[in-house]
UniProtKB/TrEMBL annotation:
The lineage of its organism: Archaea, Methanobacteriati, Methanobacteriota, Stenosarchaea group, Methanomicrobia. Residues 161-183 are annotated as: Disordered. Keywords: 4Fe-4S, Iron, Iron-sulfur, Metal-binding, Repeat. Coiled coil: none annotated. PROSITE patterns: 4FE4S_FER_1, 4FE4S_FER_2. Residues 164-183 have a biased composition (Basic and acidic residues). It comes from Candidatus Methanocrinis alkalitolerans. InterPro entries: 4Fe4S_Fe-S-bd, 4Fe4S_Fe_S_CS, NADH_quinone_OxRdtase_chainI. This is NADH-quinone oxidoreductase subunit I. It holds the Pfam family Fer4_7. Residues 36-65, 77-106 form the 4Fe-4S ferredoxin-type domain.
Length: 183
């Protein structure tokens, strides 16, 4: 038995077959289905909270983040993931209605404190808006809101005018009837 093991050891050392990986110097190729740290596409996220509701470990919560899209995500709330609780099941990724949450091949999560493994939108987010883009989006949102109010005011004015016209027609037909009776 000892000779058999010695023979196998010598065979492996001569043939050059890698038995032990030299991590972190040599990182192995990961499969396409690898579930690592999440990636959040900030420009796509609508802040619906579907990922929060589906998470079985309750490790995702929505937090405020000012670098997002104020047009699509009016509350400016984005997912924050606690990797100390996450089991990397991928349900949050599957349930996202706009497919803004993905899982990357990054698997190295370490820290000295518990807070170091809680990743907010600033750590997992990609595609943040610049200050200039944010000001343009805010201006567009303001203009859209003003246009919406203007249209609502016009619709209310038109409705009021239509009601007044209908009342005048009704009043006029009542006067005609009274005139006919008087004759």
């Amino acid at each position: 038995m000892v000779l058999k093991n010695l023979k196998m050891t010598l065979k492996r050392s001569i043939s050059g077959v890698e038995v032990t990986r030299l991590y972190p110097e040599k990182i192995m190729d990961l499969p396409d289905a690898e579930r690592g740290v999440h990636v959040l596409e900030i420009r796509k996220c609508i802040g619906c909270g579907a990922c929060v509701r589906i998470c079985p470990n309750d490790c995702i919560k929505l937090v405020d983040y000012k670098r997002g899209n104020p047009v699509k995500n009016k509350k400016l709330q984005y997912p924050q993931i606690d990797y100390g609780r996450c089991m990397f099941c991928g349900l949050c990724v599957d349930d996202c209605p706009v497919s803004c949450l993905h899982m990357s091949k990054v698997f190295e999560i370490a820290g000295w404190d518990r807070e170091d493994i809680i990743y907010g939108p600033e750590k997992i987010g990609v595609g943040d808006y610049t200050d200039q883009e944010l000001s343009q989006l805010a201006e567009e949102a303001r203009k859209a809101e003003e246009e919406k109010k203007r249209k609502a005011a016009e619709a209310a004015k038109a409705k009021k005018a239509k009601a007044a016209k209908a009342e005048a027609v009704e009043k006029g037909s009542g006067e005609k009837a009274a005139k006919k009776k008087a004759e």
